[in-house]
Design a protein that fits this description.
123 residues; mainly beta; 7-stranded mixed beta sheet; 4-stranded antiparallel beta sheet
Length: 123
């Protein structure tokens, strides 16, 4: 059974930064597309970014327009870890952030999900 464990959330002031981590337990997911999503209170879960790996140093990342330029997704297959760097945070970035993994693409129907990590941005 694969479990994704997120960490790195917390309380930060507007304009600050956080780095979220996601570590799969149970197996290595280097061939999977790894994604990050978030869900704010009263809102639907939304896609933020995903990253795939096709071998060597070939990583491919996609971003939602709302976070492109502020958030950066990366993965370290040697550490079996996916990261999401959050910069220039705004109060509207406050949400629970989730890591997901799927063989083909990161969507709301992704195969594996973490429990989420809370990010709170104060004004």
């Amino acid at each position: 059974q694969v479990q994704l464990v997120e960490s790195g959330g917390g309380l930060v002031q507007a304009g600050g930064s956080l780095r979220l981590s996601c570590v799969p337990s149970g197996r290595t997911l280097s061939s999977y597309v790894m994604g990050w999503f978030r869900q704010a209170p009263g809102k639907e879960r939304e896609f933020l970014a995903d990253i795939s790996w096709s071998g060597g140093s070939a990583f491919y990342a996609n971003y939602a327009a709302s976070v492109k330029g502020r958030f950066t997704i990366s993965r370290d297959n040697a550490k079996n870890t996916v990261y999401l760097q959050l910069n220039s945070l705004k109060p509207e970035d406050t949400a629970v952030y989730y890591c997901a993994a799927d063989r083909t693409r990161a969507t709301l129907k992704s195969t594996y999900w973490g429990q989420g990590t809370q990010v709170t941005v104060s004004s």
